[in-house]
Amino acid sequence: MNIEEKLEHLQKASMEEARSQANQTIDDYRGNLSKTFEEHKNAKLRQAKNTIQSETELALHEHNKSLAEAQLGIKKDILNCKSDLMEQLFDTVRERLISYMKTDAYRELLTKWIEESLAYANGTPVRIYINATDERLKAGLETATGAEVTISKEDFFGGMRAVIPSQNILIDHSFSVALKNEYENFHFTGGEYHV
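-> structure tokens emitted (195 positions)
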């Protein structure tokens, strides 16, 4: 082998060695890039997942908040509607009571209540009160029951009250108290949308 052949062989061997080293460096670099890319990709996927989860939770929270506000608004509207309906209902009841108080049945009811109060007192003195609006019935009630009937200074809408002073007993058949009790204990019931 002459010098030129040796040089050519040396050059060829050097080039092959350089190519092999370059290919190895490129392969290592590609491997590192691939590994870095996978790590970066996984980090970004985790970050995206966390962002999606937090945004989903925030959206759900906002949705629940809006839903709760809407429900409160609906409940408030229902309560206002119930209140309006109750007022209308009890206005109607008051009007019907006023009409009822003009009937013989009302006079008979007062007579019955006075007689029951007298029976309960069992001979003990009783003060019987009727409302000022029922003054026209006073004489008839006294005749029917034999009791002295007093016109009350306090307006109790109708009905009667009896006081048995010796026993500290009040028998209250006043319409104002009955209406108040009914109003406080009244509940709408039934229906598909009952709340």
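The chain has two domains: 1-100, 104-185.
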